Amino acid sequence: MPIRALVVALLLMLAAADQARGQLDPEFDGVWDGAIDVVAVYGLRRPSAVLPGHESPVPLQIRVRGQAVTVWSGNQRLRPVSGFRIEKHDAAAVIVAAAETTTWIETWQISVTKTETDKLLVYLWRVVNNTQLHPNRDGSRFAWGGVGELVRSGSAE
Fold it and tell me: Disulfide check for 118: which of 34, 107, 125, 152 has CB 3.0–4.6 Å away?
């Protein structure tokens, strides 16, 4: 009996290791679709002003092809001045963008980790300082964040 239990335990460990390999898959290329729930808002009375027309949950699509990344919310492409770039770390990645003009400072960070080969856990946050507006005015300085899951729906051609 103890040997049978040992064999069963060993088989379960091998099955778990095989499943973990899928979670550690470093491949991010593809189109990732889903939605994120707004979990944090600072400095905005109208959170939908961050992505006009979208209340929580916010539709999100991330397209990755090598180092090229585009991000969409519904039919609106999110276009920070610098564009998005991706830094991959095994089964996790950080997608970032930053912009600065004489009146506008903005950063975007999207942290993702694979929970399955074709599923991502995602946390997106955006921080803005609109320096031309008075600090007490709604939207002059704000932060906004959302979390959710995305599923790979195809390839990014």
Answer: 152
pLDDT tens digits, the chain, 157 residues: what are they? Answer: 466 655 445 445 544 554 554 456 678 999 999 999 988 888 887 665 566 555 778 899 999 999 999 999 988 888 777 789 999 998 999 999 998 888 889 999 999 999 999 999 999 999 999 888 888 888 789 888 999 999 999 887 6
From CA 62, how far away is CA 80, in angstroms rounded?
Answer: 14
Q: Which of 114, 109, 137 is nearest to 125 (CA)?
A: 109
In whole angstroms, give the CA distance from residue 107 to residue 97. Answer: 6
- Count of beta carbons in the 10 Å neighbourhood of residue 82: 14
Tell whether 81 is covered by a domain.
Answer: yes
Does residue 15 form part of some domain?
no
CA-wise closest residue to 155 among 123, 127, 118: 118
Domain range spanning residue 46? 26-154
Statement: the pTM of the whole predicted model exceeds 0.85: no
